[in-house]
Amino acid sequence: MAKSLLCSSTLNPFFSSTISSSTSSKKNQIAYSGNSKNQTSSLLCNRRDLSLGFMSSFLAIGLVGNDRRSRDANAAILEADDDEELMEKVKQDRKKRIERQAVLNSAVKEKGYLQDLVYNLSKVGQAIENNDLPAAGLVLGKGVDTEWVKTANLAFTKLSTSPEENTEVETFNSSLASLITSVNKNDIESSKLAFVSSAGAFEKWTALTGLLGQLKGI
């Protein structure tokens, strides 16, 4: 009986220590396991966030690249349209020049009328420069119905094709009428001004029509 009690008293502390140690070990294992799971979960979250960050960056770069390519493509289309419009305008201008030159080449009689105008205006200019208004009056006649003035207007009518050209014709006729009036009034200063205005309008008209340089004396 004593041996039994001894054994029991001796073994109980051993079992208590063993159980306590085992329980402590299990608790440590559970705690370690919990910590390990938390660390693993944290790593997985970090990896997922990093992956999402990379995906967002790639997506943003892709969108920016697509937008830039879209703008470049639109700019190229607009540039091509501008080039086509420019080429079409060049073609139309060239066509008009060819047509105008064909008209001028065939207008032999009209260019003769204009050559008479140049000749008579030169004589009027020389007379005014010499303060010889009577000589200028003889060339100009009594009005715009003078023959060389009428034939010149026939040429103006046939060869003028733009509003700018018609404007210069109107300026010429108005200045010529003032010149005739000033010469008949023996007003030298007004005659000089009117002559410069009429000659300037005629020169501008020849430049607009392409006749500048084709008539002698201009």
TrEMBL record:
<feature type="domain" description="Maintenance of Photosystem II under High light 2 C-terminal">
    <location>
        <begin position="113"/>
        <end position="218"/>
    </location>
</feature>
<dbReference type="InterPro" id="IPR049072">
    <property type="entry name" value="MPH2_C"/>
</dbReference>
<dbReference type="GO" id="GO:0010206">
    <property type="term" value="P:photosystem II repair"/>
</dbReference>
<dbReference type="Pfam" id="PF20675">
    <property type="entry name" value="MPH2"/>
</dbReference>
<dbReference type="InterPro" id="IPR038862">
    <property type="entry name" value="MPH2"/>
</dbReference>
<protein>
    <recommendedName>
        <fullName>Maintenance of Photosystem II under High light 2 C-terminal domain-containing protein</fullName>
    </recommendedName>
</protein>
